[in-house]
Sequence to fold (697 residues):
Amino acid sequence: MAFYDGLFDALGLRDWCDQGEDAGPMSMADLLNANNANATDPNAQAFPFPSLDNLHEVCGSIMQTRDFTSGIKEAFLAARPGLKAFLDPITQPLSWMLDGALWLFTETPWWLLIIALLALTWVASRSAATVVLVGITLFVLAFIDHFEMAMQTLSIIFVCTSICVVFGVPIGILMSKFDTLRRMTVPILDLLQTLPTFVYLIPLIFLFSVTESKLYGIAIILYAIVPVIRLTDLGIRLVDPDVVEAADAFGMTGLQRLIKVEFPLALPNIMAGVNQTIMMSLSMVVIASLVSAPGLGRPVLQGIRELEIGVGLVAGLGIVMLAVILDRASKAALSRVDMTNKKQ
Amino acid sequence: MTKTPKVQLRGLYKIFGSRDKDMMAHVKAGMGKPELLEVHKHVLGLQDINVDMQAGEITVVMGLSGSGKSTLIRHLNRLIEPTVGEILVDGIDVTELKPADLRKLRQEKMSMVFQKFALLPHRTVLQNAAMALEVQGIDKDTREAEGMKWLNRVGLEGYENRYPAQLSGGMQQRVGIARALTSNSDIMLMDEAFSALDPLIRTDMQNLLLELQTELQKTIIFITHDLDEALKIADHLVILKDGAVIQQGEPQSILLNPADPYIEDFVSDINRARVLRVKSVMQPLQDPTMMDKLKGQKFAGDVDIRDNLESLIARSEGDTSLQYRVMDGDVPVGELNMRDLVKALVPRISSTA
Fold:
C-alpha cells in the first residue's frame, strides 16, 4: 500500500496529508487491520487503483468512499425540509384523488361496480367481444375472492393514468413544436425510463411518509408518463406534411391547425402511448406495494416474503388477467379512433 | 394590354440556407446555382422572377423537377418566404403582410389545390369541401350548403358522406378542387394538381378545369411538368429552368418561336397539329375594308379561329392547295393557306439541322 507514499512526498503534500490523519472515525476494515497489524494483507497489490479508499490509507486528508455516500445523504437531508415544504402542498391533491378513488372502488356494491366497468368498456371500445372478456375476467377475479384487491389496483391505475394523460399529452405537444424543449426533455425521459423501478422509491421514501398514498402515486406517474409523452411528440411529428401545408394554405391559425388537423391525425399514436402508460402503471403498482400501495401487489409480496407460493401465484395470475383486459379494452378504443385505418 | 395584372412578381429571389440574405451579393454578381452550392452551401431556388398574371387567365408555370416551380407557387401565399423581391396581389405587397393579414389573404383571396390532394383523412368529403369556410368562421349550415353546391358542380353528388380514402385519386382531386372553389377566392393556386392522376382521368380533370374557368373566370396559377397539359390549358405560359424564367408568353408563340435550345428540345416531341390553332398560322386581315374582297375569293370553306390544325387537315383530306376563310364568330378575320399550315407542323429544330 505504500505505492502512493512516494507520490504525495514528491508533490510536497505530506504535511497536508498528516493533518487529517486522525480526523475520521475508524472504519471496520481499519480496526481489523489494527488487530492483525503483523499479518500482511493478502489483498494488497503492488500497484492498487487510486481509489478514494486506497488513497486515504496513505493520505489521511483524502476522504473515504463512505464519506462520499454519506455526504450525498447529508445533502439530501439538508434539502429535505425545503423540498417537502414545496412538494407537499402541490402533491396533496394526488393523495386525495387516490384515497377518493380507493374509497369509491371499494365502497361501491360489487354488482354496481361491475355494471359501471362494463358500461365504461363499451363506451370506450364499442366492441361486444371486449365487453364479454372484461365481464368474464371480473367474475373470475371475484369468484376467487380477489375482486376487492383487483379494484384497488384498478383505481390506482385509473387515477395515475389520468394524471399521466393530463400532463403527458400537453408536454408531448410542446415538445413536437419546440425543438429546444425536446432536446432538454428527452434525456429526462431516458433517465425515467432506464432507472430501475426500485430506485424511484428511495428519494420518495425520504420525502414523504410511507403512510401517504401520494408516495406510490408519484412513483407510478413518473414511471408511466414517459410513453404518452414520447408517442404524442412522435404522433404530431408524423402527421402528413402535405396536410399540414394545406391547413396553412387555407389560413388556419396555429391553434386551429393543432385542434382540427394535427391532434386528430396523431390520435392513434397518442392512444398507443396511453395503452403503454396503462401497462406501465400496472407493472409499477405491483412494485409500489413495497411502499404500502394496496391491491394485488400485496399478496405477491407476501408470497415472496413468507414463501406462500399459492398466494403469490394466484395474485400474480390476477395481475395478468387485469393486464389482459386493460390492454384489450384500450387497444379496442385505439382502433376505434384510428380513422385513417378504418375507412380504407 | 392596358389591364393591370392581378398578380405581379417583381425581382423575386429565393436562396435556401441560413445566410440567404448574405448570399444575394454573390448571386447579383453573377454566381450560378452549382457554384453557389459548392462554394457557399446555399441552394439558389429562384432568381430574378418577373411575371405578370392577368385576372381571369390561366397562367401555367412549366419546368422539370428541380426547376423551382413548386417553390415559386408557394411564394404567392408565402408558404415559403422570399429572400428578396415583391409579390403584388391587387397592388398589395404580400411580403409586407402581418401574420393576421396573411391568414386573411389565404382564407379569402387565394385557395390552393395540391398534387397529393392533402385532404383531411378524418373528415368526410363534405367537411373537407367546407373546410375553407370553417376556417373563416362561417356557420355550419351556410358552409355545408356552399360545399354541397361545389361538390355537385365538380360531379360528386352522393359522395358527400364518404371519407377521402374511400374515393379514387381523380375523385379525391375533385374534392380538392371543390374545397378550393368553396373558399370563393379570386385566385386559385394549383400545384401539379393533375400530375398524380392517370392519363385518362387527367384529361377529364383538365376539361373540367377549362369548363369551370369559362364559367368562373378565376385567376389560376397552374404548375405542371407536362407540356401537353401546359399547352392545353395555358393562356400565359412561363417556362422555368434552374429557378429562372427562360421564356414566357402566349403558348402558341412559344411553340412556334422557342427562345432557346432547352425549349426547342421540349417542344420537339409535341403533336403540333393537335396543339397549334388556326389563329397562330393564319394570315390576319390587316385592313377591315379588305373584308369584301375576301368574299370574292375562292375559298374551300370557313374555319373557326380556335380550331386546331388536326381538324383542318382531316377536313382538307391532305390537299395543300386549298385556302380557307378564318372566322371569329360571324366575322371573317383572316385567311389560311394549307401550305403555311404544313410548314408550321415542322419544328424549327429540324429545319436548322
